[in-house]
Amino acid sequence: MKQALREAGVPTAASAAVESAAQVRAFAEQVGYPLILKPRSGAGAAGTTRVDDDAELDRALGVFGGEGIDSIAVEEFVEGHEGFYDTLSIDGQPALDFVCHYYPNVLDAMRTRWISPQFVSTNRIDTAPEYAELREMGRRVSAALGIGTSATHMEWFAGPKGLKFSEIGCRPPGVGAWDLYSAGNDMNLYREWANAVVHGQVGSAPSRRFASGMLALRPDRDGQISGYSGVEEMHRQYGEWVIDAHLPDPGTPTQPVEAGYMANAYVRMRHPDYDTLRSMMDAVGGALHVHAG
Question: pLDDT (tens digit, 9 = 90+) per residue, 82-120?
């Protein structure tokens, strides 16, 4: 995929599919560190590892070998902010599109228990000129890969090296992102997907009335959930902006951090102003705690 996009002129991190330690080391010698290694059979960030030198590379390869993994993707580490660009495309053109931002980047979020990671869908995509470049990249990627009528989910990075493509799938995003888009835009995106497939058109446009986001909440330790603190305060201060909250009952077994954003507890919120929503989610993430024992 990335090779096809590089040939089409889409800015993409250097990458390769490798099946031996020698191939990985040759790539490291050519591209330099840091590098990102990921099993080609992995989904999301599962098994993804950053290595910064030869010693870390050798340790990572030992882990992959011990797990029986015989094919990995290796790529240049791209510094920058991470997000995703999602569309409902008809005949290769985005009939509906949405942009989300990760806070922090996924690799950090999936490795650090104390972080309450967020992803937030902006309602400024039509008004902030900075999104024009991202939309254009999405169109170029879709054209280069021959994507027709489909949901798409495209990950990207923006940093010192500019805007860089990461990956794309012909599917909706995970972690309930379409629920956030629907709640933020006064529409039923699932119905519009059916309209696109069956009728070749959509029946509504996004209102962009709200920015919307999800805040993942991790237990303070592994075990069983014993209770929560800060729930009443969240509803007192921000209740009108809470879409919903998933707070598993005490006694529910906890799930490991690497199980993902929806593995334990989470809260979804919306607000007409993106920056205000970010501030509210930061406050909730600092005050609402999941206790386990």
Answer: 999 999 999 999 999 999 999 999 888 887 888 999 999
Q: Which two tokens stand for residue 178?
A: 């379409």
273: Cβ contacts below 8 Å, ≥ 6 apart: 211
Are the beta carbons of 173 and 86 closer than 8 angstroms? yes
- Residue 289, strand partner residues: 229
> Which of 61, 76, 91 marks a domain boundary?
76
pLDDT per residue as tens digits for the range 159-186 = 998 999 999 999 999 999 999 999 999 9
Chain segment 146-159, per-residue pLDDT in tens: 999 999 999 999 99
CATH number, domain with residue 13 = 3.30.1490.20
Task: Enumerate the β-bridge partners of residue 23.
Answer: none
Owning domain of residue 164? 81-292
Same domain for 123 and 48? no
Angstrom distance (rounded) from CA 265 to CA 259: 12
pTM: 0.86
Helices of type H across the chain: 2-7, 21-31, 54-66, 106-109, 131-145, 177-185, 189-199, 231-238, 274-287
Residue 141: φ, ψ to 5°:
-65, -45
- pLDDT at position 41: 67
Domain end (from 34, 59, 76): 76
Q: State the Cα–Cα distance between residues 171 and 192, nearest whole angstrom.
A: 14
Percentage of the residues of the chain whose pLDDT score is greater than 90: 78
Whether residue 215 contacts residue 116, with contact meaning beta carbons closer than 8 Å, is answered with yes
